[in-house]
Amino acid sequence: MARIITFDEVEPALRQLFDEVRGELRELPWLIAVRDLFGRVRFLVERRPTSGTSVAAALERLAQAAGDRLGPRVYPLDQAFLYGDELASDPESAVKESRVLVEGPPELRLLDRQVTGQAWDTVSQPRDGAGPRLAFYSLKGGVGRSTAVAVAAWHLAKQGRNVLVFDLDLEAPGLSSSLLPAPRQPEFGLLDWFVEDAVGQGDACLDGMLATSPLADDLPGQVWVVPSHGANAGDYLAKLGRCYLDLPPRDGRGPEPWQQRLVRVIDALEQRQQPDAVLLDVRAGMAELASAAITDLGADVLLFAVDTEQTWSGYRVLFEHWLRAGTIRKLRERLRVVAALVPETDREPYLTGFRERAWDLFRQHAYDIIDPTEGPPADAFSFDLADESAPHAPIPIYWNRGFASMRHLHALDETLAAAAFGRFLAQLDAHFAMDVEDGR
């Protein structure tokens, strides 16, 4: 049986093939390898080269060699090229959406046309002058992430802060009902907004998407909740199937990706309520909604983890993707690891091992490499294993059977909260105190 050419072999092969002809392509600003939904590659050139020139000959050799090396992973020679000056769209948009495989001149870039997954590749910068957003994320469910959101909201409301909580786990809604008893459920939720916004009715839902949680009824601050769905969930699955839609151009505007729609609704609700803090309960896993919450909303991100090989293997996959896409440098200062469900016994040995594995993850993928003979430069982003301020330093949340047996989170016991979340809440206080000092 003939050996197949796998998906993962394409990028290194393209780099090697490009190096063989790049000397004859120096008059080009870039060459983009466009990989389609099936994983096949063709090349986008800024403009069609004049026939008979060295550039035209080099491009043809490249396409021929790619076909010989990669077989069904590339388009045949007569379909191998797209030319920017012959396309209806601006080729510069492809440059912005692609990532560099080989530094120029000219650059070799890769543009992946994917059904899902592209949202993990781009990172929006934090917003100026807005209240802080904090995203609670985990690769797997069942690690106490939603409970931590509720405890954090309760703790901040005790301090007199007004907190806006979003249930972004649309495919496994739960926080909404935990924080809002049935009589308090609002008319609409996020899922309702998405399907109504698709027909231009999203703004009409905004005033009916918020409800106050009894969690803060007797506290100086308030906890507002934006649930995944309204009081009447309706045909939830039918609406869910229409949630992740990019809107077509309309009203003189260009197309709007669904991630930008998510940013738009969160911005709109923030402007209405003017909260002191925004907490985002993010869907577990590597789904598109999780990526948008982490990369597009300008939030600081708590990475919930338990000390298992399954957890660290999953985070390595994610961090390796960020490293490959060149986005880790834009994101790394906003990340912090949470050690969830720390066991009742042997806590210190557990946290020691957890810290070492978290450090390995960040050291290999996120921290700057320091030459030991020269010492770290002043702006180096690198931390020692024992540095308590480092992103890898675990913030512990202890497993507590009292929390494990709670049926809802409409009210919290201070003793239980202190026992399980004491160190977590101290870190939360330090985080929001820093935001005040920074003027956020």
CATH superfamily assignment of the largest domain? P-loop containing nucleotide triphosphate hydrolases
CATH architecture of the largest domain: 3-Layer(aba) Sandwich
Tell me the number of helical segments per DSSP (H or I, 4 or more residues long): 14
Rg from C-alpha positions? Answer: 25 Å
Bin the strand percentage: 15-25%
CATH topology of the largest domain: Rossmann fold
* Spatial shape: globular
CATH class of the largest domain: Alpha Beta
The major sheet is characterized as: 8 strands, mixed
The figure for the number of domains is: 2
Q: How confident is the prediction overall: mean pLDDT?
A: 87
Explained architecture:
Helix 1 (10-21) runs antiparallel to helix 2 and helix 10 (309-325) runs parallel beside helix 12 (347-365). This protein has 14 helices and 13 strands. The chain has two domains: 7-113, no CATH class; 120-437, 3-Layer(aba) Sandwich (Rossmann fold). The termini are far apart. The chain is α/β, with parallel strands linked by helices and 440 residues long.
Structure described in brief:
By secondary structure, the chain is α/β, with parallel strands linked by helices. It has 14 helices and 13 strands.
What brief labels describe this structure?
440 residues; alpha/beta; 5-stranded mixed sheet
Secondary structure layout:
Layout: H1 10-21, E1 30-35, E2 41-45, H2 54-70, E3 81-83, H3 91-97, E4 99-102, E5 107-112, E6 133-138, H4 145-158, E7 163-168, H5 175-179, H6 190-197, E8 211-212, E9 223-226, H7 236-240, H8 258-273, E10 277-282, H9 288-295, E11 300-305, H10 309-325, H11 328-331, E12 335-342, H12 347-365, E13 395-398, H13 401-404, H14 414-437
Parallel strand pairs: 1-5, 2-3, 6-10, 6-11, 7-9, 7-10, 11-12, 12-13
Antiparallel strand pairs: 1-2, 4-5, 8-9
Helix pairs in contact: 1-2, 4-14, 10-12
